[in-house]
Amino acid sequence: MDVPTHRLTPQGHRIILTAKTRKEKGMKPNPVGWFEIYVQDMTRAKTFYETLFQATLEQLPPPPAPEDQSCGGDMEMWTFPMSEQGYGAAGALIRMEGVPSGAGGTMVYFSCEDCAVEAVRAAESGGRVFREKMPIGEHGFIAIVEDTEGNVIGLHSMH
Questions:
Q1: Burial class of residue 126, CB neighbours in 10 A (0-12, 13-18, 19+)
Q2: Which of 50, 65, 77, 138 yields a CA-CA distance of 20 to 30 A from 26?
Q3: What pLDDT does residue 11 have?
Q4: How many CB atoms sit inside 10 A of residue 11's CB?
């Protein structure tokens, strides 16, 4: 089945691409297929992200642990809303024994209608605004916030 994806041009116009069109144009899929945000306090982090994006996260069962490892039972996962027909990366909050949260080498950007709105929600939800909404030329605007677990995330919007 050829599920169309939607993409915005730099001018903000929506275009629809099918797998056939992407192949004809030599387009590869977006490089990010999944993201994980590691947390220490799942209740606090889940509340933060549900308030920030006004969405409900869904719990996933932990993966089965290989016989020689014990990683499955001490892992908690809550996914962000996702759709197999939509485009963009899916991901989850993860609490796993021995895996720290906090600022690091990865930045995940969440798409927003207006990143300034979500930046305010971040501060009101117990996080902090690291960088207020700022223009990034023809690519729109970004804001950078820190969540309740010390993770730094990006917010992106075209307006």
A1: middle
A2: 138
A3: 44
A4: 7
CA gap 145, 2 in Å, rounded: 37
Is 79 a residue whose pLDDT tops 70? yes
Condensed to tens digits (0 to 9), the pLDDT of residues 8-32 reads 444 444 455 555 665 677 666 666 7
Task: Give the per-residue SS3 of 57-117.
Answer: CEEECCCCCCCCCCCCCCEEEEECCCCCCCCCCEEEEEEECCCCCCCCCCCCEEECCCHHH
Taking the domains of the chain in order of start, what are their residue ranges?
Answer: 30-157
pLDDT(43) > 70: yes
> Which phi and psi (to 5°) does residue 102 adopt?
125, 175
Give the span between the Cα atoms of 54 and 152, in whole angstroms.
19
CATH number for region 30-157: 3.10.180.10
